[in-house]
Design goal:
By secondary structure, the chain is of the alpha/beta class. It has ten helices and eight strands. Strand 4, helix 4 and strand 5 form a beta-alpha-beta unit. It starts with 12 loop residues before the first helix and ends in a 6-residue tail after the last helix. It binds geranylgeranyl diphosphate, SN-glycerol-1-phosphate and magnesium ion.
Length: 264
């Protein structure tokens, strides 16, 4: 007798977890690892650090991504830190890998490039369905950070103006009305200046979804500011790649923001 295929749950567990953070005022930290900068010995050292200074998620992604690098990176994370969920942060339909736990299914709503709004998603959809990955539909907004970033260049889109919180708020509002469940404000990898507190506050007030903020968060102060302005989850990539010991400061800043302590 043919079996009825089981459809994935409407609200995946990871999305539930993030929505829960928002309701409980819990703040979270994700570390972005770029598969193309994969070096097993450095990674092992970094994962050991995360045992002393626990993080909430690993994000795995980059603008190019050679498949075997991504697979090796996920395998290492699953072997060494099985308790930390691994979320794909893809820039292309080719980057779907069922070995991760979930995927930030980004729709680049700050841009006007149909391929990154819906095109890549159509190509990825059957493989995503088959993969069993938890799908987290995410409104992805690139924000001008003073210079072109890899993501703005690769996507061929103009980022949101840095000093226009109201445009970011309306963009997020439209994304939420279209059914997106997370919002991600990103200054872009290696941003010169992070997304402003005013913009984070405006988006926070405009939507009810959990809010992710990343790009150029390279001091505890910047992390604290982003969280205090309303981010639920901050993402740190480049600075931790270069300076793994920054993890202690990053985790401390997240805990301070969570407890509403004033920074000295
Ligand atoms: C539907 C699927 C599966 C994919 C499409 C996903 C979309 C729409 C992506 C939005 C646009 C985009 C190109 C995002 C890039 C996100 C990313 C992985 C940034 C990290 O950039 P790096 O390549 O690490 O930058 P650097 O290494 O140069 O600092
Ligand atoms: O590498 P950084 O600048 O920390 O940025 C992380 C992430 O938000 C990039 O998309
Ligand atoms: Mg990178």
């Amino acid at each position: 007798m043919p079996t009825t295929p089981t459809l994935p749950p409407l609200l995946p567990r990871l999305l539930d977890t993030l929505a829960g953070y928002r309701q409980q005022g819990r703040k979270a930290l994700a570390v972005l690892l770029d598969p193309d900068d994969f070096a097993a010995d450095r990674l092992l050292h970094f994962v050991a650090l995360t045992r002393q200074h626990p993080i909430d998620f690993f994000l795995v992604g980059g603008s190019l991504v050679l498949t075997e690098h991504q697979a090796a990176l996920i395998a290492l994370l699953k072997a060494e830190a099985p308790q930390v969920p691994v979320l794909l942060f893809p820039s292309h339909a080719l980057h779907v890998d069922p070995a991760a736990d979930g995927i930030l299914l980004l729709s680049l709503i700050s841009g006007r490039n149909p391929d990154f709004l819906i095109g890549q998603h159509i190509v990825a959809a059957p493989r995503l369905r088959q993969s069993g990955l938890q799908v987290l539909p995410t409104g992805y907004m690139l924000v001008d950070s003073g210079r072109p970033t890899t993501a703005s260049y690769i996507s061929g889109t103009a980022p949101l103006p840095h000093d226009k919180p109201s445009i970011a708020a309306a963009t997020a509002m439209a994304g939420e009305q279209l059914g997106l469940r997370l919002m991600y404000l990103d200054g872009g990898s290696g941003a010169q200046q992070p997304v402003s507190a005013a913009m984070i506050r405006a988006v926070r007030q405009a939507v009810d979804t959990p809010l992710i903020v990343g790009g150029g968060l390279n001091t505890g102060e910047k992390i604290y500011t982003a969280l205090a302005a309303g981010a639920d989850l901050v993402v740190v990539g480049n600075h931790l790649e270069r300076t793994p010991n920054f993890l202690a400061d990053a985790v401390a800043a997240v805990r301070e923001a969570e407890h509403g302590l004033a920074r000295i």
